[in-house]
Amino acid sequence: MTVVDEEFEDLKRGIRDMVLLFKTIWDEVDHQFSELPREERHRIFSIIAPFLTDTLSAMVKGEDAMEDLTKPKGKRHGKKRR
């Protein structure tokens, strides 16, 4: 197996893992909020899925996830006010 083949397999494995993660998150949202309409469950999923995947990905990579999550975001960060 060449280096390119190994990188491609790693990419496929990463995509497969992300799909499984999203499916798991959706299944849990669907279960926990089964009394809500499907549209509301989709809204909840769209709010929490990116946060959870970022956190879990950072944990897998061995990075400090909380550091990234607590950094202020926005255009005004780092600019002085007059």
How does this structure look, described?
Helices cover 73% and strands 0% of the residues. It has 82 residues and is mainly alpha-helical. It has one domain (3-61). It starts with a helix and ends in a 12-residue tail after the last helix. The longest helix is centred in the N-terminal third of the chain and has 30 residues, at 3-32. Helix 1 (3-32) packs across helix 2 (38-61). The model has no long low-confidence stretch (mean pLDDT 80). It contains 3 helices and no strands.
Number of helices: 3
The proportion of residues in beta strands is under 5%
Number of strand elements: 0
Binned, the helix content reads over 70%
Whole-number radius of gyration?
A: 18 Å
Order of helices and strands: HHH
Distance from first to last alpha carbon: 60 Å
Overall SS class: mainly alpha
The shape, in one word, is: flat
Which whole number gives the mean pLDDT?
80
Number of separate domains: 1
Main sheet characteristics: none
Low-confidence stretches: none
Q: Top keywords for this entry?
A:
82 residues; mainly alpha
